[in-house]
Amino acid sequence: MSDKDRLPASIYQMTALEAAPRLLGHTLVRRTEDGEIRSRIIETEAYGGVEDKGSHAFGGRRTDRTRVMFGEGGPAYVYLIYGMYSCLNVVTGQEDDPQAVLIRATEPLTELDRLVMSKYRDIKSRKPADLSNGPGKLCRALRIDRSLNGLDLRTPGGPIWLEAGDEDQEFDIVESPRINIDYAEEYAAKPWRFNIKDHPYVSVKAKDGRIFGTFQGLRPS
C-alpha cells in the first residue's frame, strides 16, 4: 500500500465523534477466499466515552466484550446483536478512553465487489442498496464476524483493513440522531449519526438531519 492509499493515522487517535464523519467516503477492505472486496463507507455512528449511555462501555463497563474498546485506536470491535447479526466498529481514541465508530452502511466500489457481496448475502431483493445498507447487512455481505474482533484495521494485507478513499470526491455530510438506542435516555437524541447526503445506501433517511460539513472540509491530515 502506498502512502496515498493509507488512511491518515490521525483519524485513529480522534474521539469517536470526531472520527465518525471523517471515515465517510473511505474504503473498507475485506480479504476472502474469493479475493479482496472493497466497499465505500456511507454511514457511521459515534459511541464515545464512559459517559455515553448508548455505548457498551458506559460507566467504564470493562468486560471480555468491551475490552478492545479500552485500547488505543486502530482495532476492529465486532459484536453480535440479537444473537445473530454481527456489527463492525472502528476503535478510536486513546488507551482507557473507550471510543468506537459503528459502520452502518457501505457501498461496493465495483461490479465485481457487488457480485461477491451478493453471493455472500444470498438475497433476491431488487433494491441494490439492500445489499449493505445496514450494519448487520454489510457484515453478512463482507463475511465479518467475531473472528475479526481485535484485528488491526491500520495494517493492510490481513483479513480486514481500511484504505483512504478518492481524495477528489465531494459530498455533504448529514448529522442526525443514532438509530434504535431509546435506552440511552438523553443520549438517544444526540446527533451522532453521520451519512453521505442523499446516498441510496443510507440505512434510514434522517427526518431531522442537518448538514454537518463536507468531505473536503473534514479530510484528516
SSE map:
Blueprint (H helix, E strand, L loop, with lengths): L9 H4 L2 H7 L4 E6 L2 E14 L27 E6 L3 E8 L6 E10 L2 H11 L13 H7 L18 E4 L8 E5 L16 E4 L13 E5 L7
Antiparallel strand pairs: 1-2, 1-6, 2-5, 2-8, 3-4, 4-5, 7-8, 7-9
3D architecture notes:
This protein is an alpha+beta fold and 221 residues long. It has a single domain (10-214), classed as 3-methyladenine DNA Glycosylase, Chain A. It contains 4 helices and 9 strands. The protein has helices at 10-13, 16-22, 111-121, 135-141, and strands at 27-32, 35-48, 76-81, 85-92, 99-108, 160-163, 172-176, 193-196, 210-214. Strands 1, 2, 3, 4, 5, 6, 7, 8 and 9 form a 9-stranded antiparallel β-sheet that branches. α3 (111-121) packs across α4. The longest helix has 11 residues, at 111-121. The radius of gyration is 16 Å and the shape is globular. It starts with 9 loop residues before the first helix and ends in a 7-residue tail after the last strand.
Short key terms for the protein model shown above:
221 residues, alpha+beta, 3-methyladenine DNA Glycosylase, Chain A, nine-stranded antiparallel beta sheet, 4 helices, globular
The residue ranges in which pLDDT falls below 50 over 5 or more consecutive positions are none
N-to-C CA distance = 18 Å
Largest sheet at a glance?
9 strands, antiparallel
Overall mean pLDDT stands at 94
Give the amount of beta strand, in percent.
25-35%
Summarize the amount of helix as a percent range.
10-25%
Oligomer: single chain
**What is the second-level CATH architecture?**
Roll
Look at the helices and sheets and give the structural class: alpha+beta
**N-to-C order of helices and strands:** HHEEEEEHHEEEE
